[in-house]
Amino acid sequence: MDALTAKSEATFATIIDAALDMAAAEGIGKLSLGELAKRTGISKSGVFSRVGSLETLQAAVLDEYDRRFAQQVFLPALQQPKGLPRLLAIVGAWSQRACDESLRNACLYSAGAFEFDDQDGPLRDRLQQGVAAWRAALRKTILQAMELGHLRPDTDAGQLVYEIYSLIVGLIHDTRFLRDEQARRHMQRAFSRLISTYKSFNDME
C-alpha cells in the first residue's frame, strides 16, 4: 500500500468514525456532509470525494456499525460449540454491548427504527436489512440448537427470535432512556426464564 492510498483510507476512517458519533447523538437521518466537514476539519469537497452522496455515507456508516457489532457479538460466539452454548454467548455479548456506555452508537438500529418507522426510502430499507441479518443469525443458531437436541423439536424458531429481540430492545430502552442500572440483570433473568421453557428434556438432564 502506497502512502497516498494509506492516507486516503485513514481519512475515510476518520469520516466514518465522526459520522458514527453524529448518528448516535442526533440520528442517522441527521447526517450531513457539511457538518462532518466541520467536525473532521476536512473540506466538504474532500468529504464528498471519499463518501459520495449522503445515502452512500449513511450506508457506509451502517456497514461499519455492522462490522463492529459482528466483531463484538457474533464472531466471539463462534468460539463456542454450536447450539445452545453459542446462542447463550450471542445473547450475553449482545446484552453487554447494549449496556456499554462507552459505545455511543450501541443503539443505532433501535434509534433508526423509531426515526424511520413511517418513512419509506433507501435508508429505511437498509435499516431493515441490517435487522433482518441479525435475526437470521439468531434463527440459524436456534435451528442448530434444535438439531442438536438442546431445544425442543417443536420450538418455533421465529417466535423465539422475536422474544429474544424484544428483550434486547427493552434492555436498550431501560438502559439508555430510563438509565436503569438494574436493566441488564432484569433482562438476563427474563432470558433465563424464557430459554428454560424451550430447552429439551434431554438437555435438562
TrEMBL record:
SUPFAM superfamilies named among the record's database cross-references: Homeodomain-like, Tetracyclin repressor-like, C-terminal domain
InterPro entries to which the protein is assigned, alphabetical: Homeodomain-like_sf (IPR009057), HTH_TetR (IPR001647), Tet_transcr_reg_TetR-rel_C_sf (IPR036271), TetR_C (IPR011075)
The keyword Cell wall biogenesis/degradation is assigned to this record: no
UniProt xrefs under Pfam families: TetR_C_13 (PF16925), TetR_N (PF00440)
Keywords of the record: DNA-binding, Transcription, Transcription regulation
Domain HTH tetR-type: 9-69
Gene3D superfamilies linked to this entry: Homeodomain-like, Tetracycline Repressor, domain 2
Start-end of DNA-binding region: 32-51
GO molecular function: DNA binding
Protein name in UniProt: TetR family transcriptional regulator
Source organism (scientific name): Duganella vulcania
Phylogenetic lineage: Bacteria, Pseudomonadati, Pseudomonadota, Betaproteobacteria, Burkholderiales
